[in-house]
Design a protein that fits this description.
This protein has 8 helices and 6 strands, in the order E-H-H-E-H-E-H-E-H-H-E-E-H-H. The chain has 238 residues and is α/β, with parallel strands linked by helices. It has one domain: Decaprenyl diphosphate synthase-like (Undecaprenyl pyrophosphate synthetase), CATH 3.40.1180.10. The structure holds 3-methylbut-3-enyl trihydrogen diphosphate (2 copies) and magnesium ion (MG).
Length: 238
């Protein structure tokens, strides 16, 4: 499951509060969604926390978000670990404070053996950045792959290579766009958009999204009849 957690600013504005109050409240939704994912047996959850484009926001909002990330991780790490959560961050961390990067790396190492849920936070992440860095790393590892390489050779170097491609994508906050999130990985993901603002998104809202997903028919290019086994497979392929 992959989620764009959007609508924090509007949630706060509607209450005559500063935008950052919405970000602070959004941490509660992160907790609720992690709990709910464990209850539903979700094994991989990837949350978009900060996009490569979010640096364009006012400097005080950016620094609030960085502090919130640092403090939340410090506060929650023990609980994440106790609950069997493997923690990962994907994105370009080169612009982050050293103290935050150190804490992230420590958290990743400490939780590396956990198996219940793999929680990935996408921070200073961009889907195009991901494809570019995968290309660079692939060529560095095997320069002879300059041409004729397959999709698997490239995708093995994507930031989220340790996780399966998402089955379900959720975006809160009413906007219906991908905003440079997992461009490669979302190729065949089921998309779910809700007007609910992220701070209002809770266990019940997640259950609704999952219920919607369960009514989808994932055809991957085939026909509905093929999936139901009613018609002959004219292509001869499995
Ligand atoms: C999403 O909420 C959180 C981040 C992008 C960090 P927004 O801050 O984008 O909230 P809106 O879209 O302005 O309401
Ligand atoms: C996308 O939200 C990024 C995150 C939720 C971290 P934005 O609110 O920044 O997206 P746009 O720019 O409105 O598309
Ligand atoms: Mg937004």
């Amino acid at each position: 499951m992959a989620i764009i957690m959007d609508g924090n600013g509007r949630w706060a504005r509607r209450r005559m509060m500063p935008r950052v109050a919405g970000h602070a409240r959004g941490v509660e939704s992160v907790r609720a969604v992690i709990r709910a994912c464990i209850d539903h047996g979700v094994e991989y959850l990837t949350l978009f926390a900060f996009s490569s484009e979010n640096w364009r926001r006012p400097a005080d909002e950016v620094s609030f978000l960085m502090q919130l990330f640092l403090k939340s991780l410090q506060k929650e790490l023990d609980k994440l670990h106790e609950n069997g959560i493997r923690f990962h961050v994907i994105g370009d961390l080169s612009r982050f404070d050293e103290s935050l990067v150190r804490l992230i790396r420590e958290a990743e190492e400490r939780t590396a053996g956990n198996q219940r849920l793999t929680l990935t936070i996408a921070a200073n992440y961009g889907g195009r950045w991901d494809i570019m860095q995968a290309m660079e790393r692939m060529l560095a590892a095997a320069p002879e792959q300059r041409s004729g390489f397959g999709e698997d050779a490239l995708s093995a170097h994507l930031a989220l290579a340790y996780a399966p491609e998402p089955d379900l994508f959720i975006r809160t906050g009413g906007e219906q766009r991908i905003s440079n999130f997992l461009l490669w990985q979302l190729a065949y993901t089921e998309l779910y958009f809700t007007d609910t603002l992220w701070p209002d998104f809770d266990e019940a809202a997640l259950a609704e999204a999952i219920a919607s997903y369960q009514h989808r028919e994932r055809r991957f290019g085939r026909t509905s009849e093929q999936l139901k086994g009613g018609a002959e497979d004219v292509s001869g392929n499995a």
